[in-house]
Design a protein that fits this description.
By secondary structure, the chain is an alpha/beta fold. Helices cover about 45% and strands about 15% of the residues. The chain has 18 helices and 17 strands. The protein has a 5-stranded mixed β-sheet with strand order 3-4-6-5-7, sandwiched between helices. It has a 5-stranded parallel β-sheet with strand order 11-10-15-16-17, with helices on both faces. Strand 16, helix 14 and strand 17 form a beta-alpha-beta unit. The longest helix has 21 residues. It is globular and about 70 Å long.
Length: about 475
């Protein structure tokens, strides 16, 4: 077929290239369709509630979330930030506001008790969660998180964000998140095994191959996934699908590698590279260490790690040998970074007193939610930091996000940067780092183009939310009122 023939449809009309933005009945709806949806009430409670502008629709959706779940602060923050990103879509095609209303409510939210015995024979009790937010694109998939910070609000927030995060990858992935409020770092190996077995005994009713795939998250590493899978196998006969293993702990480094590949793309956009960049890493978990590993491979200089005991700072950088020492310490359950001082003659422990006082080029927060608040963002900007790339879930608060934008710092939101695990899982056992880097580039370019399309050039947070939402919403429109 010649180029001229390929550019036309079978009826001789020029073929319009379709995208998420130009699909028939998509964002660019005609005026008649737009007006018909604006005339419909967004809510019918104590009188019909309509909206005239996209921003008004976003505010109405946020108000509804507050009415229902005002006690869940993390979830409300996620909804508010996301809906304001989506306001331009509601402006162009009001129909999407009604889809967003559906999307705010998860398809299923399971909360259950997890009883287990500690090493002294005392009965302990924790809460377990699994929220299956959306299966519009495919089977549920999402992380499990263990930690004292886990509650219904944080799980709902992370589940809501994962809808957009998994959607923008381009793969057929649903969105789910789960976990428990247990602190895995002050438990013995035997206690964690018993806990995981009890947790899976209840969770098994709601997950499985082609149904819901839990993955590693905060406080859930290869050992925890192994214990969970062991119990799953005891209860179920089927433990794989199409040769794809269920609950496989392989590619544990994918989330961290993905974060760095996104940082590389962001710098390349500005004609820069990671070579020689001094990088502040907050956290010392598996993601933080894989971030450091990939930074070293690309010529950057990791400076720090941190945990509950404080932070270690190597003024000349953490090399391969030092990283191996730190990994050996942190792979031991409950071990703290302070032990590293014994093995290093150059490391500084809690000096300076705040890790944010250390001058850096880039900051990778890979620890707890809301680690980077307004004060931290201001301090990073004052110290010459040029970018913050999230290596953890919701590590930057909404207020800090605004400060980063105002001060001109690059910002890589977790909705975008934490897609490495989903990408690699979708690629299967043959996935390589080269394939991951290529897919990261594709996703990044798509998000960047979407941000520009909606007059938010360079705003990756808005671009990621819009890209993910459009893909999920367009699928939901075909499913009806479900």
């Amino acid at each position: 077929m010649t180029r001229s023939m390929a550019s036309k449809s079978s009826f001789g009309e020029p073929r319009k290239k379709k995208t998420l933005l130009t699909d028939d009945g998509g964002v660019h709806a005609n005026m008649q369709l737009s007006k018909s949806w604006k005339n419909k009430p967004l809510f019918r409670r104590q009188g019909d509630v309509r909206f005239k502008t996209g921003l008004e629709a976003a505010n109405l959706l946020v108000a509804e979330a507050r009415r229902r779940d005002d006690h869940e602060e993390e979830y409300i923050n996620s909804v508010e930030s996301t809906m304001h990103c989506l306001a331009p879509i509601f402006e162009r095609n009001p129909r999407y506001a009604f889809v967003a209303k559906q999307l705010m409510e998860p398809e299923r939210f399971v909360q259950f008790r997890v009883p287990w015995l500690d090493d002294t024979g005392v009965l302990r009790m924790n809460r377990g969660y699994r929220i299956q937010f959306s299966s519009s694109l495919g089977p549920y998939e999402g992380a499990l998180h263990f930690g004292y910070h886990v509650n219904s609000g944080s799980i709902k927030s992370l589940g809501f964000d994962s809808v957009f995060s998994n959607g923008l990858t381009g793969y057929n992935l649903g969105a789910a998140v789960g976990g428990s409020d247990i602190n895995p770092f002050d438990k013995s190996e035997a206690e964690i095994q018993r806990f995981c077995q009890s947790y899976m005994t209840e969770l098994v009713k709601y997950i499985g191959p082609d149904i819901d795939l839990p993955t590693m998250g905060m406080g859930v590493g290869e050992k925890e996934i192994g214990y969970l899978y062991g119990q799953y196998k005891r209860i179920n006969i089927k433990s794989s699908s199409g040769g794809r293993p269920f609950l496989s702990p392989s590619h544990a480094e994918a989330p961290g590698y993905g974060v760095v590949h996104y940082a590389k793309e962001m710098l390349a956009d500005k004609g820069d590279s990671l070579q020689g960049k001094r990088c502040l890493i907050i956290g010392a978990g598996k993601v933080a260490r894989s971030v450091a590993q990939k930074l070293l491979e690309l010529g950057a200089i990791p400076l720090t790690f941190s945990d509950s005991s404080g932070h270690v700072y190597e003024p000349d950088g953490i090399d391969e040998g030092k990283l191996k020492t730190i990994s050996k310490i942190k792979n031991e359950r409950g071990a703290l970074l302070g032990r590293y001082i014994i093995a290093s003659t150059t490391a500084q422990f809690n000096d300076p007193s705040s890790i944010l006082d250390i001058p850096c080029d880039l900051c990778f927060p890979c620890a707890a939610m809301n680690d980077i608040n307004d004060e931290a963002a201001t301090k990073l900007a004052d110290n010459g930091c040029i970018g913050v790339i999230e290596g953890g879930y919701s590590t930057v608060t909404p207020v800090a996000r605004k400060i980063l934008k105002k001060r001109g710092l690059m910002y890589g939101p977790h909705t975008l940067t934490m897609t490495g695990s989903s990408i690699v899982n979708a690629q299967g056992s043959r996935a390589t780092d080269e394939m991951l880097a290529e897919e990261v580039g594709r996703v990044y370019r798509g998000v960047k183009a979407t941000a520009q399309e909606f007059n938010a050039r360079g705003d990756l947070y808005k671009g990621a939310n819009i890209s993910g939402f459009l893909r999920v919403a367009n699928a939901m429109l075909n499913h009806g009122a479900v």
